[in-house]
Design goal:
Blueprint lengths: L1 H7 L2 E4 L5 H8 L1 H5 L5 H14 L4 E3 L1 E3 L14 E12 L8 E9 L3 H15 L2 H9 L3 H11 L1
Parallel strand pairs: 1-4, 3-5
Antiparallel strand pairs: 2-3, 4-5
GO biological process, one term: phosphoenolpyruvate-dependent sugar phosphotransferase system
GO molecular function: kinase activity
Main location: cytoplasm
Length: 150
């Protein structure tokens, strides 16, 4: 998964963001750039968080922005990675709802959506990978992690 993210250029590194909404928008920038998704999809993800709460923060420090599979504005299946140096706060009342790592999903159908999630979970089960990603600052760091662990 990480090698594919690097090869496709589906990653970015950001110092800080203005809001969690801005974080979601920036996390999808690599997928917007190659037309995997359109703005309509990104705004749907933000609307889902507004409606259902910060469900996308799957564990403290890690967010998995996504909407439903096959949502409008989704033209392909991919995962993008974003590292934010300054934690993004999704809920000031809950210290566990902060994130620095964003794995933003797009999938054109249910099967590919589940495959994306499974691939991501397999990666995140490895604490060494998560720690390395938390410390990553450059494309070179990301390439090194991908080559070391995949």
């Amino acid at each position: 998964m990480l090698k594919e993210i690097v090869e496709k250029g589906h990653y970015c590194f950001v110092e800080k963001v203005d809001s969690w909404q801005d974080a979601i928008r920036q996390s999808y920038a690599p997928l917007l750039k190659d037309n995997t998704v359109e703005n309509e999809y990104v705004e749907a993800v933000i609307e889902c968080v507004n409606k259902y709460g910060p469900y996308i923060v799957i564990v403290p420090g890690i967010a998995m922005p996504h909407s439903t599979e096959g949502a409008a504005g989704c033209n392909g299946t991919a995962i993008s990675f974003m590292k934010v140096e300054e934690e993004v706060d999704f809920d000031p009342e809950d210290p566990d709802k902060k994130a620095k790592l964003f794995f933003s999903l797009a999938a054109i159908d249910h099967e590919q959506h589940i495959q994306n999630i499974q691939s991501l979970m397999d990666t995140l089960m490895n604490e060494d990978i998560v720690e390395a990603l938390m410390n990553a600052k450059t494309k070179g760091d990301l390439e090194k992690i991908a080559n070391q662990y995949e």
